[in-house]
Design goal:
Blueprint (H helix, E strand, L loop, with lengths): L1 H24 L2 H29 L6 H8 L7 H14 L6 H26 L8 H29 L3 H7 L2 H29 L7 H27 L2 H7 L3 H28 L1 H9 L4 H21 L7 H8 L5 H9 L3 E5 L2 E5 L8 H9 L11 H16 L5 H7 L3 E8 L2 E6 L1
Antiparallel strand pairs: 1-2, 3-4
Helix pairs in contact: 1-12, 2-4, 2-5, 2-6, 2-11, 3-4, 5-6, 6-8, 8-9, 9-11, 11-12, 13-16, 13-18
């Protein structure tokens, strides 16, 4: 029993250390502040665009109840804040804005969604974001399709109670209990589904649905728990009204916006952890990937690309290879090796392939590119520079004659896996 308790204690401590390290490295607090500021600038235009779309589907009446529910942790002030926001949205007359005004309206909305994508891409260690044509198609689905599906579901649930069949079923105690339970749980389910939808679609990489679902459920649970705690905090903080007077509601609204975005980012971290657990723990505990991991990853990617070179299979796609190696992205390495003339991007079939014969690609040259150690600064001198130079020369001599072709020939039946210790990469037989 004591051993089990010790293991649980160690696991909780390790998870706490990892979570704290990732929170610090990804500066989630600053990301949440940035998103809060962007939300203040874009909230009314965003809701105006959403309101126009919902009005076309005649489900615009559920916008205010939905806002009230999202702001429920504000306590008695939730309906007041929701009413003020809806009034601001109603005062926007899209028809008289003109082409330039409508364009600026959509640009403001796109800017907010782009901020969300950038925050998620940073968590997923992605080097670039979507191009503008890709943003238009993806963001339209987020801004237009997503709200319509959510609000339509809420409308159908609310209107279902008016049907005669449902009224008859209500007379049966069991069905009445089930329906009441479903309607009370459905807002939470839709909230989790919204988080899952964003985690799946927004990062500029392939996110597994299972990972997005785990992250969405985590964010939904945190939203409910933190919301209850925040509501209790607001109810017991009457002194804020005395200090800030009529501005108190604005201050509380800003705090909840920040907390809400922080919950969203924590859910994204959980999604990343579920999809890449070993990389997540390694980065968090060791303060980043580290030079040794970068070398391992670069060589592993090139070895797999070389294996495809000698086979009849299509070349690796960068996202496919990244998923195979258990990392979120390889774009930085691919761009680096393309500039060095080691790799090329093929158009048909699409993928990355060797730009030169593998027998001409020396491992020591590849490591020089990764470590950028091929150039020596002449200004550095003395015992420290001498010992480092001797180390580099020893490594060069040890790797002399080893090429990508010889590496693949020696390890034809192994699958490279992420190194779990400092001793080097682990592998296992097929």
């Amino acid at each position: 029993m004591r051993r089990i308790f010790t293991k649980i204690k160690s696991a909780v401590y390790g998870a706490t250390v990892v979570a704290n390290a990732r929170y610090r490295d990804d500066v989630l607090n600053l990301q949440a502040m940035s998103l809060t500021y962007s939300t203040l600038l874009s909230l009314v235009p965003f809701l105006a665009v959403m309101f126009s779309v919902l009005k076309a589907f005649e489900v615009q009446n559920v916008l205010e109840p939905f806002l009230t529910q999202m702001l429920q942790p504000l306590g008695q002030e939730a309906s007041q804040v929701a009413n003020r926001i809806i009034n601001l949205v109603d005062n926007i007359r899209v028809g008289i804005l003109g082409a330039v005004g409508v364009a600026m309206l959509f640009y403001t909305v796109v800017t907010l969604v782009a901020k969300v994508e950038d925050a998620l891409n940073q968590i997923w260690r992605l080097p670039r974001s979507r191009t503008w044509p890709q943003r238009i198609t993806t963001y339209l689905s987020v801004v237009l399709v997503g709200p319509v599906m959510v609000f339509t579901a809420l409308t159908l649930i609310a209107s279902a109670q008016s049907y005669w069949l449902v009224a008859r079923l209500f007379e049966i105690g069991f069905f009445s209990y089930i329906f009441t339970l479903t309607t009370s749980v459905m807002p939470f389910v839709l909230l989790c589904a919204t988080f899952t939808f964003l985690y799946k679609l927004m990062p500029y990489t392939k996110v597994r649905f299972s990972s997005a679902l785990i992250g969405g459920a985590t964010a939904g649970v945190l939203w409910q728990l933190v919301g209850m705690a925040f509501a209790a905090f607001v109810a017991n903080s009457a002194q804020y009204a005395a200090v800030y007077s009529s501005f108190a509601i604005i201050i509380v609204f800003l705090i909840w916006l920040y907390v809400g975005w922080l919950i969203f980012l924590v859910g994204a971290e959980v999604t990343y952890f579920h999809q890449y657990p070993s990389v997540f723990v390694h980065e968090a505990l060791r303060g980043g990937r580290g030079h040794r991991f970068e070398e391992w990853l670069a060589l592993s990617a090139l070895i797999e690309i070389t294996r495809r070179h000698f086979s009849d299979e299509n070349p690796w796609q960068s996202t496919e290879l990244a998923d195979y190696l258990g990392v979120s992205s390889l774009e930085n390495f691919v761009d680096q090796f393309v500039r060095a003339g080691i790799l090329l991007r093929s158009a048909e079939p699409e993928g990355v392939a060797l730009a030169r014969p593998p027998e001409t690609l020396a491992v020591k040259d590849i490591l020089d590119i990764v470590g950028d150690s091929a150039t020596q600064d002449d200004k550095n001198s003395g015992p420290a520079a001498d010992i480092l130079l001797r180390r580099d020369q020893a490594v060069q001599n040890a790797l002399d004659g080893i090429t990508l072709k010889s590496l693949v020939a020696e390890n034809r039946s192994t699958i490279l896996r992420f190194p779990r210790s400092g001793s080097g990469a682990q592998s296992r037989a097929n």
